[in-house]
Write a structure and sequence with these properties.
Structural class: mainly alpha
Number of helices: 2
Largest sheet: none
Mean pLDDT: 77
Distance between the termini: 104 Å
Length: about 60
Amino acid sequence: MPASERKEAPPRVVAGAAGVSMRDLLASCAAAKAVSTPPGDPAPQAPPATPAAGERRRAA
């Protein structure tokens, strides 16, 4: 096949050519995740501590 008939590969885009650094890209992804993730359920709380039977008698 002659060289004039070959299809040339499209030019490759280099990440630096886009004008966005990898640091900025990762930061924007982290921010988007933080904003779009709903808050989780609150951690289960332990029931209030009650004094043991022996301590109740002494307090009375």
